Amino acid sequence: MAAVDLPPPPARILLYAKEFAFNASRKAGPSGTWQMQMRNNGEDEHDLKVRRADGVTIATTPVVLPSSTGTVRVRLRPGTYTLYCGVAGHEQLGMRVPLTVRTPKVRTTLP
Amino acid sequence: MSTRPAPTVDRVARLRVERLYWRAGFGALPGEVNALARQPIGRVVQSLLTPRGAQLRRGPAPKVDGQPIDPFNEWGHDVLWWLDRAVRGRHPLVERMTLNWHDHFATSNSKVSDAKLMLTQYRTIRAHALGTFRGLAQAMLRDHAMQRFLDLDNSHKRAPNENFARELLELFTLGVNNGYTERDIREAARALTGFTFDWETKRFGFDPERHDAGVKVIFGRRGNFDAADVVDLAINHPRHAPYLCKKLWGYFTPRPCPPATLRRMVSAYRGSKTQIKPVLSIILTHPALYADLGEPDQVKPPIVYAAGMLRKTGRFVTFRDWSWLLDDMGQRPFYPPNVNGWDQDTAWMSTASVRARYSAASRIIKEMNIEDGSLSANQTPAKALEAALAATGDPWISPQTRAALMRYARTSVAGRTEKWEVKHYFPERQRVLRHLLLAGPDAQVS
Fold first, then answer.
1. pLDDT below 50 — which residues of chain A?
2. A54 min Cα distance to partner chain B (Å)
3. Contact B206, B194 (CB under 8 A)
4. B73/A26 CB distance under 8 A
5. Angle in degrees, CA B23, B169, B172, rounded to 5
6. Fewer beta carbons within 10 angstroms: which end of chain B, N or C?
7. Chain B contacts of A41, Cβ < 8 Å?
8. What is the pLDDT of residue A1?
9. Are strands A96-102 and A49-51 parallel, antiparallel or unpaired?
């Protein structure tokens, strides 16, 4: 049987938010579709936004209430991104982490 | 006094094994009950205390939507990871004690915010689960999830944080107001200073400059005590052994611990230099554990209930709903409600949590795919109940429940002879019987 290309599973990242920091489950991953989740372990509302190196914000979760989780899917090309909280002032207080996206090394296929 | 008829001898041996595996594990697998029931219960306990071989039995690794679970990078998958260990584990007592110690040294990812640290803590607890309590407590002192949870990770000699010191005495080793003073807590907190955590680099460490190396007075003893000394002082305190042994007893039976048994456990614990196995051996072979086999008296904790259903029905972790189902049942592993752990036994039973247990059973029944039209009208009520019992791992049910289920098996299809009725009501009877066996009152207790 011919090999069948499967769509690769999304790369995943989980960020825990508190006042005022993000703790990300990873710092880098492959290009393609990403599933980004933000768990709000803090006491204030937060969100999660994705900004390209050129300064353009390309994705965002809705505002996430305390003890809730927000999810966003986004396609990322190789490059450097900043994941940050878009609530006024929160990024400046420390709620930002970098994410490096690289060209994937392997492709998922079934024989 | 019980009015129920005494079970037959073979039935008693089976019931003993069933109770032991529910209390000291996550329920026996259907295929192993009879073989275990042929052995003296002491030998079965011994095999639980000395597990050998692979940690996990054969069976599919957990998947959600066809993809392997990802406990570090997806919310809720850490819970699925724990549930899978309980379902596929081949060392039931080790896995169950890991859960018990997680309750004892309760640490929540709702503050730690790092699934990697939480899974590392799980592995640390598991490695010490049947070892010495001293080894476990010293490992918890250095565990990074614990250090972050109880604010040990940046406790400075200029402002010692008392959280870990307080819980060490109040919950982990002695019990509330049991042989220590507020001054002991403050002095212990001084000895526990110096651990560090850097949010930027995510590195944990120890800085001697931040540690208070001065003389402390703890439990009336003076010395240049450090963090490890504090743990040892607490474990060597005369009130520690009775407190811990009594707490361990409570994980396995809701009945009060007889004073003579407590003395025996304390003696075994101290004599073995805090070995946990001798204490467990006394508990798991004690007649109180096997009393009134026809009237189970301990409510299954939610994760035991959930893992047990999967084990009894030959199923594995295949959907993400377990994460919120366990939450709704009141026990989400890695997320105890506070440092005191979970309230046990009847506290598990509330209107909402019982509803969640019913929902969980529904989800499993749905996976069984008993479609309309899949059963004929030739299935007698007795055969229908027999089939449902076989599909749910032949669980214990009281005579009253058996009679009620038989009544339902008869009446639910009585007069249903039309083609469309047979197509729907006979499979529906099977679905309902299995649901009641998995989620009825008898299924909630062991």
1. 1-2, 111
2. 24
3. yes
4. yes
5. 20
6. N
7. 110-111, 113
8. 44
9. unpaired
In angstroms, the CA B32 to CA B14 distance is 10
- Tell me how far apart the alpha carbons of residues B98 and B123 are, in angstroms, rounded to a whole number: 9
Handedness of CA A35, A41, A46, A51 (dihedral sign): negative
* Cα–Cα distance, B328 to B316 (Å, whole number): 20
What residues in B contact A9, CB-CB < 8 Å?
A: 67
Mean pLDDT (chain B) is: 96
- Number of A/B CB contacts below 8 angstroms equals 34
| One-letter amino acid for residue B121 of the chain | Q
What is the distance in angstroms between the Cα of B73 and the nearest Cα belonging to chain A?
5
Query: The tokens 């192993």 sit on which residue?
Result: B32
> What are the pLDDT digits (tens) for B259-269?
999 999 999 99
3-state helix, strand, coil in chain B (%, to 5): 55, 5, 40
How far apart are alpha carbons A84 and A91 in whole angstroms? 6
The larger pLDDT score, comparing residue A106 to residue B153, is at B153
3-state secondary structure of A84: strand
Residues of B in contact with A69 (CB under 8 A): 75
- In this prediction the ipTM stands at 0.89
Predicted local confidence at residue B397, as pLDDT? 96
This prediction's pTM: 0.94
CB contact under 8 A, A13 and B73: yes
The C-alpha of A23 sits at a distance from chain B's nearest C-alpha, in angstroms, of 7
